[in-house]
From TrEMBL:
Protein name according to UniProt: Glycosyltransferase 61 catalytic domain-containing protein
PANTHER family: GLYCOSYL TRANSFERASE FAMILY 28 C-TERMINAL DOMAIN-CONTAINING PROTEIN, GLYCOSYLTRANSFERASE
Protein keywords: Glycoprotein, Glycosyltransferase, Golgi apparatus, Transferase
UniProt-annotated location(s): Golgi apparatus membrane
GO cellular component terms, A-Z: Golgi membrane
Record pathway: Glycan metabolism
Main location: Golgi
Length: 285
């Protein structure tokens, strides 16, 4: 037990539990995960997938057995359990995949000074004075204003600035024509090797070249820092509606983004998943 938990065990701070269990996101057809904030004597046993809150006063929020069961992530994916350690964040990751941790190491390092804990394999007991079970989730690529879930009024512009900082992407605005003699604006076309690929990709690239652009065609891969730098260098981003469009988070503000929407009644998804988020990022969609 660390010193923080020892202090809690001596009674320094009453046990508190508050949860946001509103299952639906306002105006969006996805369930939000439940999130609980805890303070007091918190003990986490990853191997048992259990978080204990020593609660001698019998404070509310638990059932008659002194338990509370949550589904911390509604979409059955990786999630993080952040707990506070002397003002810094320690991340506990379920469904731990080494490739995932390696791929997103720059972001994890920006969030925490500590190595993340494999929640599925760690056999120890970790003690804290404060922590969160689950994550506050918003819409895909949109951060909404909310008095409790977003009390500091962060926006997607703030999020993108944080991501660019994590990957050391210094470019924060697109090129200005004429600023550098002979410079041509950069177009990045995100290609796909499977479904929803451009059959006339070569013709599209040639047309952009004729219009005066330098054209790069690339498919997102495992080397996230390298691809992030490639996206950040673009003045125009062109891609078919697909998950690869999430890479627009690496773009400077005011860059032009073009989304090709396939046939099949996909306008709603295209607008809500990437179109409106692009506007929230102050991109020119």
């Amino acid at each position: 037990m660390n010193s923080a938990a020892e202090g809690a065990a001596r009674g320094e701070g009453a046990a508190k539990l508050s949860c946001d269990e509103n299952g639906m996101d306002d105006g969006f057809p996805y369930a939000r995960p439940s999130v609980c904030e805890l303070s007091g004597d918190i003990r986490i046993r990853p191997k048992q997938k259990t978080m204990y809150l020593v609660n001698p006063s019998g404070a509310g929020g638990f059932d008659e057995n002194g338990e509370k069961q949550l589904r911390p992530y509604a979409r059955k994916d990786d999630f993080l359990l952040p707990a506070m350690v002397e003002g810094k964040v320690l991340l506990l990751i379920t469904n731990y995949k080494p490739w995932w941790v390696q791929k997103y190491t720059p972001v994890l390092r920006k969030l925490s000074s500590y190595d993340p804990i494999n929640f599925d394999a760690d056999a120890g007991v970790h003690c804290f004075l404060a922590g969160y079970l689950g994550l506050y989730r918003n819409r895909d690529l949109i951060i909404s204003l909310h008095p409790t879930r977003n009390p500091r009024n962060y926006t997607m512009v703030d999020d993108d600035r944080f991501i660019r900082s994590a990957y050391a992407l210094r470019r924060d605005r697109p090129s200005v024509l004429g600023e550098v003699p002979g410079m041509r604006p950069q177009v990045l076309i995100i290609s796909r090797g499977g479904t929803r690929k451009l059959l006339n990709l070569e013709e599209v690239a040639a047309a952009a070249e004729e219009l005066g652009f330098n054209v790069t065609v690339a498919e997102a891969g495992a080397d996230m820092p390298a691809f992030a730098a490639l996206v950040n260098a673009a003045d125009v981003l062109l891609a078919v509606h697909a998950s690869g469009r999430t890479n627009q988070i690496f773009l400077p503000t005011q860059v032009v983004v073009l989304q090709i929407v396939p046939w099949g009644n996909m306008d709603w998804m295209a607008t809500n998943f990437y179109g409106q988020p692009a506007r929230e990022m102050q991109l020119r969609y």
